[in-house]
Specification:
Elements lengths: L2 H15 L1 H8 L9 H7 L2 H4 L1 H16 L8 H29 L5 H26 L1 H27 L10 H6 L13 H13 L18 H6 L16 H6 L19 H12 L35 H11 L2 E4 L8 E4 L9 H6 L7 E5 L7 H7 L7 E3 L7 H4 L10 E3 L7 H8 L6 E3 L5
Parallel strand pairs: 2-3, 3-4, 4-5, 5-6
Antiparallel strand pairs: 1-2
Amino acid sequence: MPLRVRAWMLGVGVAAIVPLPILLIYAPPDGQQRGELVQFLGRFHPLAVHIPIALFLLVPLLEAAALVRERRHLRQAAGFVWGLATVAAIASAWLGWLLAWSGGYEGSLVTRHMWGGVSLAAASLTCWGLYHWKRRAYAVALLATLGLLIWTSDQGGKLTHGETFLTEHSPGPLRRWLGEEKPSGVDPTSFYAMRVQPIFEDKCVHCHNAGKFKGKLRLDRYEHVMRGGKDGPVIRAGEPGKSELFRRVTLPSDSKDFMPAEGKPALSAAETKTIELWITAGATTQIAESAIQGLPPLPEENAVSAPLTADYRPQWNTIEGLETSLSVRLVPRSQNPTDGLILRTASAPERCNDATLAQLAPVASLIVDAELARTMVTDKGMQAIANFPNLRFLDLSNTAVTSTGVKELMRLEKLESLNLTETRVTRNGITELQAKPGLKRLYSFETH
């Protein structure tokens, strides 16, 4: 490619990138929603962003392959790929800004991800330019760009799946090295967890979280609530009238100190009363919901479901040890740590037998779903399963279980769904199960 053409293309790339940091500084995402067309275009960002990622990863593969003499010609393709990657990265960054600016997004995490995207576009253009002029500097820029890609992708993952998505289930030593916070230890059945924290999450955490904490105040975890902000504690146990948080949520909505700010929905009278009763009762996490008198009824749309199990996080080391020793998977049912675990055996069903189920006793109360299809379990294993007090869903299809074994399952008070397809269960066993209280779904295809 002639030098003049490369210089012209480099100039076009710079002109396309320069407005982006200016927009991030002077027109950052502010939580407002804007025109339909702008939002429509912005929503192509999640689709477009994967194109430059794939091209960024292709370049080092081409460079590595070109180290072999017979494949040196592949190095010529790297320059072309860098050109495509730069165009795709710039387009993706523009779409990302449109999405954030028009779609009601704001916060430091959004801003970090956007700066990462703009920086990646600039880094890609730099690599394309250095590829033709400075090979040694190009190699350094390539490595830096890959590092920036990893960081920016991590920020995007946190935006989509939550701040702890990548590290939530990482090994303990790695979590400590990364500075991951330990579980708060809050009782999931307490008044605070059931009634107070949902109010904070709905009305306050948007502005007071790990990525954005106005006035140095975070309300996403109990310990941060009690720690307070830049002006000191915002909760005084037993004294709602002297608690800054309660004062602010009860101010007139036109007051400059009113919370929530920025036009966010105010707390309802019931929510304000709930917080007042909690502070009056001592503002702890040890108070049971039944111990609070005068509690307003919880609106049906805001009702908080009772936890399915205890918090599994304190037993995570035990869970990991059982996964390793028994060759099974114990997967969280959701990001809520009180939704329990799913026992999965599909990757190696032949390794799961009656002894395996017996060895799961330490975490039996945490399992709400057991996928045991095609495993080696028999009627003896049902004795262990009967000691899974919170089990809701059980798949025993294609196992050697008979009517004798399923009698043990009558002890499972919370069982809702049972799959006995292609087992040795007879009509008598099915008839007995049909009378089981709480059982909503019973599958008996191709049984005896």
